[in-house]
Amino acid sequence: MKLTHREVDAIRAERGRSMLLFVTDRCPVGCGHCSVDSRADSPSITDFERFDRIVDWIATNAKLEVIGISGGEPFVERRGLSIATQRFADAGKRQVVFTSGVWATRERVPQWIRAVLNRCDCVYLSTDAFHAKAIDDACLVRAAQTIAAANPWIVLQVLDDELEQERAAKLLEQALGRHWQRHAEINLVTPLTHGRGANVFSRLARVEGRAFGPCSLARSPMVRYDGAVSACCNESVIMAKGPSRLRRAATDHNSLDAATDGFHADSLLRVIGDVGLGVLTQHPRFADLASQRFSNNCDLCWKLLERMPEGSDPLLDAIASLRQDDDL
Asked: Fewest beta carbons within 10 Å, which of 137, 184, 263, 291?
């Protein structure tokens, strides 16, 4: 059954229902705005025994309903992507894959790629002026047509720009016809100032700390192919930056359980994900952050995590028992 962007977001917002699997750092596209600084020679899976344990843990976790798979460019990791998607399909998991469509540069798309797409419920296909240097319109149209033939829902992601949106709509019409909305949608994304993107984009608008709501991404941990588990999918955290509290290492089922359970049980992370970062500025330890301005919730989140040591805090535990549903 297909999953739309709204449906994917709704599932990710509910703690414990989804997880992101990061299968490779590698990507041949070389976009100047890449938020994880992926390159053609970046690391990928070397220990397939460990990777197999990670995939098995996800597949056998009854609570996880939807599995996202990203990178890098996941389709450059043929063995790992094929293993993961087949195992998840066998386990009845719904799957969402994020790709640039670089695999459609050839006229004939390989059968193994079509098999992976057949196992997906949604495919996020990214395009913008940066991708266009390596992935031309013909390639993107071929990618969209190949995905549509496999029958998952298509989310074409573009930067939040009027010209990019118009170009995306034209490409979808060229690929799928004038009724393309029956098969796909366009999702506008804010440029990320992580990785190489820090040299391209800047955030001008800044918001007072007290105004930030919950970060739903903190409800859905991510695991990388090498066993690095993070509390969210922030690109800098994936690349081992930011507070160490957001990362744990795992090698088997027990340590994966411990890592994810630890994130879900962490009172500070629960407040950030469920109640709101702004609410935390009412805590005496963070009161000065209420009037400070931040460009995004990640900047505020890191400040909060750096100040609060792990361990019990009665006031924090009380705040964690609250719930606020409106995300900023």
From this structure: 291
